[in-house]
Write a structure and sequence with these properties.
Two copies of one chain form a homodimer. With 331 residues, chain A is of the alpha/beta class. Helix content of chain A is 47%, strand content 15%. Chain A is built from 13 helices and twelve strands. Chain A has a six-stranded parallel beta sheet, with helices on both faces. In chain A, helix 5 links the parallel strand 1 and strand 2. The longest helix of chain A is centred in the last third of the chain and has 19 residues. Chains A and B meet through helix 4, helix 5, strand 2, helix 6 and helix 7 of A and helix 4, helix 5, strand 2, helix 6 and helix 7 of B. The structure holds a DNA duplex (16 and 16 nucleotides).
Chain lengths: 331, 331
DNA sequence: TTGAAAGCGGTACCAG
DNA sequence: CTGGTACCGCTTTCAA
């Protein structure tokens, strides 16, 4: 920066002001810009953050980047935060709370303006860390009874119950469930709990359950799980899956066995992933706006940041995201 | 840090040393650790980077985070770089060179130790920026004739040609191609070029081509494209797709029309995504180790970083990644 | 509108 | 093994 200042014949401060787009005469501005170009000067963000006491980072922690669910949410966040000059520091927890804790600690070192987490399951240390940091926190994809700070999501239990009701209305009674495997995937577990709760409420049997392998649930899990379910309870009329991925795997397994979906057996998914609409038969699913969760989270973050400067007001602690059952061909 | 030092009854320097895991007596170390715990002290990364002149960032730019291809590559990078204490600064270019340029400039502000880009197509300004920065650069997913610095990838042209040869050997002659749409997706374009080159070499017609919409190519593109191809050239025997995603969409379209794949028409994909193995019929494809590209890139980065300190030696400028045609059911 | 000085929170370097 | 000092590159603050 000193070099730029010297070349432009001004002080460092003037260069700093020009770069920040603050008051400066046209002439000076021009000379400074030219000097910057000429030297290929790129300001050091670390120095700026240190000096001003505020970084331009927003930390985002997702369980898995390779799940389109979460990468869509990251996309929504990017769309809202980038125009504000904020940069995302993205971390992948791999569904492990300990890893989340490590990552939170690591991100906190960069003094992020805000930190967005996925879900409501965190270690005590993580909570303590966040509390102490004083940084705004948003929990995404869930609506905890007591958010750390803010939350943007929906009740996976309720959404799952709604799908069960849909299936029951369609006349299916012997309904099975595929998924809810890992204790680490709270959202998957909640969908399982929703299945159980609604089946009980409807007075239907709720033992036709095959739990899956590790999260993230992928399509590869669906096939074997479906095979097991068909073997153990051949009279099953419909199967609800913890995600569209496993639903797809299940449908493919049925096709391999010559079963017609939905005539021989109905299958429903969750999430409304692209594959649900494309695949044949198209998958009946619960639509959740993953990108929208990112956007709304971004908006809540921007509002919280502005509120820090006394401009505008924070969003409410909980932002509820809509979901809908989307009837398609598979159930 | 001063607070920690005061509480532990030592100097700031000693605290700094303890945190860096350098020489310190057991007693001192203990007291410092306790003070850190008690105060919930989290060191400021920006200050550390500024002072030491080196950050712990590695910048990574991918065209799209929601493509499993690239998120797998990011996973491979993470696996190798995280244990080295390096952190990823991830950016999504959306296949736009101008966006890549903006992101490169932005990442450079954080003084990354290294920067990994996808592909070999960059604006002149990007190249200049990188050159001047003096930061090691790795281009992934391609093997440019003249890499900016290092490259880890393979020839999409050659891989594509190999798939055409496979199809021809299987006896197919009237082979079509789906994809290679966007000028921005160099890799897709290269696969298209490979198709043309090999069809020509084999003396086969190469006009049965339907170009797709925007990148990233998704499964939704495959259906309509397949429909168009079937309409225009009903005598087509096999179709090669620019990616497994479009191949899947194409297969679903065939099923909707009551066509049997591969009996009525054969379909091949590219990339060996999870869906290719799961779907029915399973998709014949070109397998590329996306995660491995990330790993190898990570290793090249670590080697380059060590070489900077005079420890060990850099990897060669080009690292070739293997690919193989995987025969499955669809072709 | 511009400039000078101080200092953000760490680490390098050298001395003890 | 430990401490003091300078300084990294920028922004804040205050004065001109």
């Amino acid at each position: 920066m000193s070099d730029v200042a010297r070349l432009a014949g001004v002080s460092k401060m003037t260069v700093s002001r020009v770069m920040a787009g603050r008051s400066a005469s046209e002439a000076t501005r021009g000379r400074v810009q030219r000097a910057i170009e000429e030297l290929g000067y790129v300001a050091d963000a670390a120095a700026g953050a240190l000096s001003s006491g505020r970084s331009s980072f927003v930390a985002v922690l997702v369980p898995s980047l390779s799940s389109s669910n979460f990468s869509d949410t990251v996309g929504g966040l990017t769309a809202v935060l980038e125009p504000q000059g904020l940069e995302l520091l993205i971390g992948d927890t791999d569904y492990l709370p300990e890893r989340e804790e490590r990552l939170v600690r690591q991100m906190l070192r960069h003094q992020p303006r805000c930190i967005a987490l996925t879900g409501s399951q965190h270690t005590d240390a993580t909570r303590a860390l966040l509390q102490r940091s004083g940084v705004p926190v948003v929990e995404m994809w869930d609506l905890p009874t007591e958010p750390i700070d803010m939350a943007v999501g929906f009740s996976n239990v309720s959404a799952s119950r709604e799908m069960v009701r849909y299936l029951a209305h369609k006349g299916y009674q012997r309904i099975g469930f595929l998924g809810g495997a890992s204790e680490l995937d709270r959202r998957g577990l909640d969908r399982f709990k929703g299945y159980q709760a609604e089946m009980k409420a409807l007075g239907l049997e709720r033992h036709r359950v095959v739990r899956l392998g590790e999260s993230p649930v992928t399509m590869s899990h669906g096939g074997p799980a479906m095979a097991e379910l068909l073997e153990r309870w051949p009279d099953t009329q419909a199967v609800m899956c913890v995600s569209d991925m496993s639903a797809f795997g299940a449908i493919m397994e049925c096709q391999r066995r010559g079963l017609n979906v939905p005539r021989d057996i109905a299958i429903a998914g969750f999430g409304n992933f692209e594959i649900a609409a494309c695949c044949h038969p198209a998958i009946t699913t619960v639509s959740v706006d993953a990108y929208g969760i990112g956007q709304r989270t971004g908006e809540a973050i921007v509002a919280a940041l502005l509120a820090e400067d006394g401009e505008g007001t924070r969003h409410p602690a909980k932002t509820r995201i809509q979901y809908t059952v989307v009837p398609r061909e598979s159930a």
